[in-house]
Amino acid sequence: MTTEDHLTFRQFMLREQDRVGTSSDLILLLEDIATACRVISHKIREGAFVGTLGATDDTNVQGETQKELDVIANDEFMRHCANSPRCAALVSEELDNVVWLKKEAKKGDYFIYFDPLDGSSNLELNISVGSIFSIVELQEDLTDLTDEAVLIAGTEQICAGYSLYGPSTSLVITTGHGVNGFTHQMGSGEFLLTFPDMTVPASTQEYAINASRQNFWDAATKRYVDECLAGKDGPRGKKFNMRWVASMVAEVHRILTRGGVFMYPMDSENASMGGRLRLLYEANPMGMIIEQAGGKASIGGSRILEVAPTDLHQRCGVILGSAEEVDLIDQYYSE
Ligand code: AHG
Ligand code: MN
Ligand code: MN
User: Fold this and answer.
1) pLDDT tops 70 at residue 2
2) Once rounded to an integer, what is the mean pLDDT over residues 229-240?
3) N- or C-end of the chain: fewer Cβ atoms within 10 A?
4) Mean pLDDT value of segment 205-214
5) Is residue 52 a contact partner of residue 68, using CB atoms and an 8 Å limit?
6) Is the CA virtual torsion 322, 288, 79, 16 positive or negative?
7) What pTM does this model have?
8) 212 C-alpha vs ligand 3 centroid, how far in Å?
């Protein structure tokens, strides 16, 4: 082990400040987000004892039933982010509208977008869930605090990350200078750097898609999956494995670890909503992380990060992972 191994999150961020000029305010905000993730992780682990794994009687703006822990995770995220003096607005999957924390937003302030608990249908099953977040920095002062003001393309993100609540709790972040993964250590209470410089291998033999939706798939998706299934004798000339956790954070973590491609395309059933996954707090942050790790992220024919948002809870197709596979799928979309 060298002194570079197992840096605490703070030590790592201070090293990044020296290396690439990460601002102190962003470091402090990320520490608050890391605290929120530690608390959420703890609350999930005690869920079976205190009866919070199940559903509430409420639905969110997406019309989805909220789990008790969706609400708890949302509250924790809001509480900890609101501490940052630079945080101007919060956008959450679980909230209908933007929460403004200031009377007027200044150049340099942050907008934070988050999915407090992704994959929450897995909670009772004790299968991995996660939190996803994205940070945008205001380029100019803002006096008109409307929902429209936070509709900013993913290319403007200065930071994205997720926490994965699995057998251990991970925190994976990018500030636009590569992707680094940390693991929560129980004894110290700290996130320690355990997966420096995470990369997505360019080629893969593994894909992830909810195959029960195949009757709704478009031609490009059908063709890609058929060719994977054809294996060694098919046009791809190799055998493919398939995985579906139904928890995007776990799928992205797998892809950052051993490569692969994750697909939740727009299909004939979800087309009226624009797809299944949400742009601002699911697709954009995961897109930035995957690109920063050397992979690609597409809505099916074009880059996720270049989509100009028109709605807070807008959805889109998501195809991300190993560059060769995403390029091939994009090519099928263009044909
Ligand atoms: P959320 O729990 O925030 O609503 O999102 C769950 C998402 C994502 O994690 C996963 O990839 C997908 O929904 C699972 O979809 P299926 O239920 O179609 O498998
Ligand atoms: Mn989600
Ligand atoms: Mn969610």
Assistant:
1) no
2) 97
3) N
4) 98
5) yes
6) positive
7) 0.97
8) 21
Residue 129, pLDDT > 70, answer yes
Residue of 247, 269, 278 to test ligand 1 pocket, by largest number of atoms within 8 Å of CB: 247
Which ligand is closest in space to the CA of residue 249?
1
**Residue ID of nearest Cα to ligand 1 atom 11:** 248
With a CB cutoff of 8 Å and minimum separation 6, the contacts of 57 are none
Q: What is the mean pLDDT of residues 12-33?
A: 97
Q: Give 129-177 as a DSSP string.
A: EEEEEEEEE-SS-B----GGGG---GGGEEEEEEEEESSSEEEEEESSS
- Decide if 238 contacts 230 (C-beta within 8 A): no
- CA atoms 132, 279, 198, 26: torsion sign: negative
CA-to-CA distance for 92 and 95, rounded, in angstroms? 5
pLDDT in tens, 236-280: 999 999 999 999 999 999 999 999 999 999 999 999 999 999 999
Q: How many CB atoms lie within 10 A of CB 116?
A: 27
As a whole number, mean pLDDT of residues 8-31 equals 97
Q: Whose CA is nearest to atom 7 of ligand 1?
A: 119
d(CA 305, CA 169): 27
